[in-house]
Structures are given as C-alpha cells and as structure tokens.
C-alpha cells in the first residue's frame, strides 16, 4: 500500500485533480445552461415537452458512443470529454428545475404578479427559492452521473481517474483498478455531501423538511 | 371619478365572449361587489382592472388615466390585490409578506418595520406573528394577512377576488367585519368579487350583478332587493331572501297604524279620561294644536292628578320615544323589542304625529316574514310593499 503510494502518489493526485476539473466544469456548464432553459420553458409550456424529450433522447445515447462521436468534432483531449459530460448533465437538471418551478403553488404566482412583482423578481425572489430543493436534487443526481462517467473520458485522452482503471484492466493489475475506482466513489460521495449542505442552505427555512 | 370602466369587452380565441360591453363608474370610497354565477365574467372584469388580463376592447380609466398606457407592474403596485387562495409567500415571514410591496417600492427597512407593526394591528393579530411563517397560522389568520397586505403601500383601490370563498362561515363573517371596518376607517375603494349574495348585500354600497358576461343590474343593495331588474336577479337573490329582506327595506310609514289615539295638550283631564275610555287604551299621545308630538299621558298619572284641575300638557311625560315615518322598520323593530315599549308614535319630518307602531303590528311583520311563502298574496297587501312588482 505504502509502496504503491510512493510509486504512484504524485500521479494519483494529478488524476484526481483532472477528474475534478472535468466533472465540475461539465456540471457547472450544465447548471448554467439547463436552469435558464427550464425557466424559459415554464414561460413557454407548449415547447417544454419537446425540449425535455430531446434532452431525454440525448441521455439515451450510450456514453462510449457519445464520447467517440465527439472526436471528429472536437478532436481528443479534455474539450470533447467536457462537452459530452455536459450533455449528460443537462437532463436531470433541466427536468428537475422545470418540475420544481411548475410545482410552485399557482396562487402564490398569481399573488406575486398581482401585487406588482416583475417577471424577473417573481423568478428570483419566489420561484427559484421555492423550487430550490427539487432543483438541487437534480443537480446532485447530475453530479453523481458526471463524476462516474468522467472515468470514461480517459478513452479519448482527457485523463482523470479513468486512466488508472483502464491501465489496471489492460495490465491485469487490481491495485491500479482500485486506485482509480475508490477515489471516484469517494469523490462522488463527498460532492453529494457538499451539495446536500448547499441544498440545506438554499432551501428557505419554512419549507425545510 | 376614481375608476371608470368603459365598454369593456373580452373575447377568448374561438369567439368565446367572457365579458360584453361592461361600463361602470366608481367613485372614491365606494364598495362595489360584483356578483354572479361561475363564468359570469365577474373575475375577468376584476383582473382586467389590474391588467392581469387585457381587454379585447374598451378602456379602463383610473383618475382619468388610461391603464393600457401604464406599465402593468407599476400599476399593480398601486392597486391592492387579495385572492381566494390567499397567496402568501410560504418562504417569507409574515413581516416580509406584508411589506413585500413596500420593499418592491424600495422603502427603507425602518419605514417597512413601522408599517408591518401598523398592519398587523389592522389585521387584529398579535405582534409576535410578524416573525412567524404563513404555515404557522390558521387559514383565517392567513387571509387577514392577505387582506392587510393589500393596504401596505397605501393603495387607494383594493381588488378582492372571492377572498373569503374558501373559509368556514364563522371565519368568513369575522373577515367580512374586518374588511367593513377597514373600509369605514380608511375610506378605501373596494372592488370585490363574490358569489355569496349575503356577503354582497352586507358589504356593498353598490352591487353589480352579472350573467354570461353582461351586466344585469347595478344598484344599491336596498334597491336591488326592492326592485330586482329581471328574473335572473330575482333568482340569484332568492325568494327567501327577498321575503326576509322586506323588513329591512320597508319604511315605518308603510306598516304603521294611521289613526293613533291622541289628545291636544290644552285639554282638561276629564276629556282625556273620556277619550281613553272610549278608545279602550291606557295611554294617550299628547300633541300641540298643529299635531306636533309633545308627550305621552298614561292612566296612572291621570288617576293621581285627576282632581288637580290641571291640563293634559301640565302632567304629561314629555320624554317620549318616537320614530320617523321614513326610517327603516328593521331598526325600529330592534328598538321597540329591546327597550320594551308597548308602542311607538310615528312622526313626519315636522315632528307631527302621523301614526303609531304597536307590538301587534310587529308581530304581524314577523309572522308574514316567516310564513308568507305560503300566503304571499296576503303578505303583499299587509306590508303594503306594492312596488315589489317591478316595471320601472
């Protein structure tokens, strides 16, 4: 164990860093894109079904295939991996944000508009706050997906903990496989824990369960 | 004119007409109730006033300003708005909820806090409630907050869309009292939508009855009860309510006995005794020569003073309770019953005696109100409410 760390410690830390970098950038982009789209969809319910359907279709593309499809467009390296992971992160966030916003009591929205809140004020001060737990659940789900699938990014040369796992598989070395997968699991658990804390803070006191 | 609706028309796609040619002028301080069945367009009219809906044609003027040319968000901040489902923000404290509009208007924190305290008092709720969340309050308490929220930025016009429809009867009544109190105290103008006729009759100074998007009748509650414009209005008010309403719209002059027993004040006492004996009464009303009511003389006083040689005017009791001919029976009934008078003289504007209301007359009224469903024809003549047949 100690000798393993002595031999691979520096590389492990680099891979963990690459993994965090890949997954968090994709997740961040996913949030930045999916939340505003979902807000837009609540104002244009006619196309909501179509857009969410499209996101669901993207979700069903096998992950290996999606990564491979990125190569002709973006080449190899971290860019295609980030794009692919970003596409995967969209659906849970999009769907949960849309559902969360749609579930806000219509009479609260009617009152917000009726007493003179602008559309923006209603979204920021009322809708997003009340939908926060549902939106955060979507983000946590996406985070877990993205961290798990970022291992596959190693196939298109993006690095990350997948490098250890695939090396281990190729060389029949279980210590390398473990050195890749245990940090992935820990990373997913820790991220989920932190996001859980953020969810708690963002959820208004009166609607915490 | 504070608020004018001019030929409002609202049509939904597929030529579904929700509101057709509604015109109405509302003065400051009025309490206007829109009433009608579901789909009558009453809520649509209300929501067009604060531009939650846009009319297809027609204009709405507030203080002479065309609302379609105003920014809807700014317009809504000037109009109080209370809805049936309360619509308090569940994630905000009561304090934040009632001062939401002031916050949107960028009042200082200090000014908002003062306002919050003032408003919670208006709602007749304890100050501790300010730091609670809506879910910690009962439905009735929440709607009290919903009501006072509409006053937070000193809005002059308060729009209420069936605000008490979802509350139990007792809570509803206490909230109606609150609204009535606020109207009288603050002199605001209310536009109130309801489907509860009792509520409309209790609160309104002007009732607008709507059906199928059109106005059936606009009038004071009294006049609507007295002269329903058509069969729809009669049905909406309900037969029972029309009958029960009679005491409240009938004047004393319509039910009084027109030949009271009276004596002028300069008569000697033996004449008074004779009059009592002849008419078989124990009390005489005393008037001046021109029938102006001066007092009352009863048999005990007459007996005590019989041989004193005084006149009726000397020994009468000049503290006499009377009612005016034009006053409403309902008030009179209460006073007669509560004060225990056997009878009450009725005078005209010049205090001249014109009639008398006795307990027997009141018994007739109550009897007719309760039983007249079977004997309606009989009842009509008794009460003399002949205008009930509407043709004007």
Automatic annotation (TrEMBL), chain A:
Its main location: membrane. Pfam families: BPD_transp_1. Residues 16-195 form the ABC transmembrane type-1 domain. GO terms for cellular component: plasma membrane. It is found in: Cell membrane; Membrane. CDD domains: TM_PBP2. Gene3D superfamilies: MetI-like. One of its GO terms (biological process) is glycine betaine transport. The chain crosses the membrane at residues 20-40, 47-67, 73-91, 130-156, 176-195. It is a multi-pass membrane protein. It comes from the Bacteria. Keywords: Membrane, Transmembrane, Transmembrane helix, Transport. SUPFAM superfamilies: MetI-like. Belongs to the binding-protein-dependent transport system permease family. This is Glycine betaine carnitine choline ABC transporter, permease. It comes from Paucilactobacillus oligofermentans DSM 15707 = LMG 22743.
Automatic annotation (TrEMBL), chain B:
This is Quaternary amine transport ATP-binding protein. It is a peripheral membrane protein. It comes from the Bacteria. It is an enzyme of class 7 (translocase). It comes from Paucilactobacillus oligofermentans DSM 15707 = LMG 22743. Pfam families: ABC_tran (PF00005), CBS (PF00571). Belongs to the ABC transporter superfamily. Keywords: ATP-binding, CBS domain, Cell inner membrane, Cell membrane, Membrane, Nucleotide-binding, Repeat, Transport. Transmembrane segments: none annotated. Its EC number is 7.6.2.9.
């Amino acid at each position: 164990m100690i000798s393993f760390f002595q031999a691979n410690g520096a590389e492990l830390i680099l891979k963990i860093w690459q993994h965090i970098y890949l997954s968090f950038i994709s997740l961040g982009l996913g949030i930045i894109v999916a939340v505003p789209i979902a807000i837009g969809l609540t104002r244009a319910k006619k196309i909501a079904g179509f857009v969410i359907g499209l996101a669901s279709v993207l979700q069903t593309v096998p992950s290996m295939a999606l990564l491979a499809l990125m190569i002709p467009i973006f080449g190899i390296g971290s860019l295609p991996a980030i794009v692919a992971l970003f596409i995967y992160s969209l659906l849970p966030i999009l769907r949960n944000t849309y559902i969360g916003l749609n579930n806000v009591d219509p009479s609260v929205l009617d009152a917000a508009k009726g007493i003179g809140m602008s559309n923006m004020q209603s979204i920021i001060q009322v809708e997003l706050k009340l939908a926060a737990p549902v939106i955060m659940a979507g983000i946590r789900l996406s985070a877990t997906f993205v961290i798990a699938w970022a291992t596959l990014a190693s196939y298109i040369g993006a690095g990350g903990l997948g490098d250890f796992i695939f090396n281990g598989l190729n060389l029949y070395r279980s210590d390398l496989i473990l050195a890749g997968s245990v940090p992935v699991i820990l990373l997913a658990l820790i991220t989920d824990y932190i996001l859980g804390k953020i969810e708690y803070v963002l959820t208004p006191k009166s609607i915490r369960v | 004119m504070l608020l004018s609706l001019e030929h409002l028309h609202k049509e939904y796609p597929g030529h579904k007409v929700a509101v057709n040619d509604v015109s109405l002028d509302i003065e400051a301080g009025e309490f206007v109730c829109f009433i009608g069945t579901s789909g009558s367009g009453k809520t649509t009219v209300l929501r067009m006033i604060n531009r939650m809906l846009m009319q297809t044609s027609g204009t709405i003027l507030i203080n002479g300003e065309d609302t379609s040319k105003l920014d809807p968000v700014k317009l809504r901040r000037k109009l109080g708005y209370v809805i049936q489902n309360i619509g308090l923000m569940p994630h905000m404290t009561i304090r934040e909820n009632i001062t939401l509009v002031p916050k949107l208007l960028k009042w200082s924190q200090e000014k908002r806090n003062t306002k919050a305290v003032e408003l919670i008092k208006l709602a007749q709720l304890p100050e501790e409630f300010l730091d609670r969340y809506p879910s910690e309050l009962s439905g009735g308490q929440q709607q009290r907050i919903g009501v006072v929220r509409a006053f937070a930025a000193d809005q002059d016009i308060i729009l209420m869309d069936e605000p008490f429809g979802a509350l139990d009867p007792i809570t509803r009544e206490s909230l109606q009292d609150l609204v009535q109190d606020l109207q009288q105290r603050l002199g605001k103008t209310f536009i109130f939508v309801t489907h509860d006729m009792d509520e409309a009759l209790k609160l309104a100074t002007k009732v607008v009855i709507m059906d199928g998007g059109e106005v059936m009748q606009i009038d004071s509650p009294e006049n609507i009860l007295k002269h329903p414009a058509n069969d729809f209005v009669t049905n909406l008010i309900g037969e029972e309510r029309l009958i029960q309403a009679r005491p409240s719209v009938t004047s004393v002059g319509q039910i009084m006995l027109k030949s009271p027993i009276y004596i002028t004040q300069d008569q000697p006492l033996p004449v008074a005794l004779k009059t009592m004996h002849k008419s078989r009464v124990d009390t005489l009303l005393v008037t001046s020569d021109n029938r102006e009511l001066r007092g009352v003389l009863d048999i005990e006083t007459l007996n005590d003073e019989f041989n004193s040689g005084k006149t009726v005017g000397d020994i009468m009791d000049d503290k006499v309770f009377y009612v005016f001919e034009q006053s409403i029976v309902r008030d009179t009934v209460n006073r007669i019953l509560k004060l225990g008078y056997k009878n009450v003289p009725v005078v005209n504007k010049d205090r001249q005696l014109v009639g008398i209301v006795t307990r027997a007359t009141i018994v007739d009224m109550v009897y007719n109100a309760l039983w007249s469903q079977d004997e309606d024809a009989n009842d009509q003549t008794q009460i003399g409410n002949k205008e009930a047949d509407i043709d004007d």
